[in-house]
Amino acid sequence: MIARLSDLKPGQEGIIREFEDNDIFLKLMEMGCVPGERVMLEQIAPLGDPISVLVSGYHLSLRLNEAEHILVELNK
Fold first, then answer.
1. What's the Rg (C-alpha) of the chain?
2. Which of 8, 27, 40, 46 has its CB surrounded by the most CB atoms within 10 Å?
3. How far apart are the first and last CA of the chain?
4. DSSP letters along 3-69, please?
5. Is 13 exposed, middle or buried (0-12, 13-18, 19+ CB in 10 A)?
């Protein structure tokens, strides 16, 4: 099942499949968000933005408007 990274709940993980927005594609790739990489949503800030994810072995904070452009395949 494919979902947006911004729609995951804390503790959910998946594999990055693609990006919808080419404008932030390079920025996300430089931060370790590459297709095929496993990503896990760790925390959501109290007001809902930003979110903290574990990707490529480190913790990364993303704004929701960035995370909604990352499509992930959820683990079964």
1. 11
2. 8
3. 8
4. EEGGGPPTT-EEEEEEES-TTTHHHHHHTT--TT-EEEEEEE-TTS-SEEEEETTEEEEE-HHHHTT
5. middle
pLDDT tens for 41-65 read: 999 999 989 999 999 888 999 999 8
| Mean per-residue pLDDT of the chain | 90
CB neighbour list of residue 65: distance below 8 Å, 6 or more residues apart:
none
Span 37-41, average pLDDT: 94
Give me 26's structure tokens.
């390079």
The tokens describing 45, both together, are: 């800030």
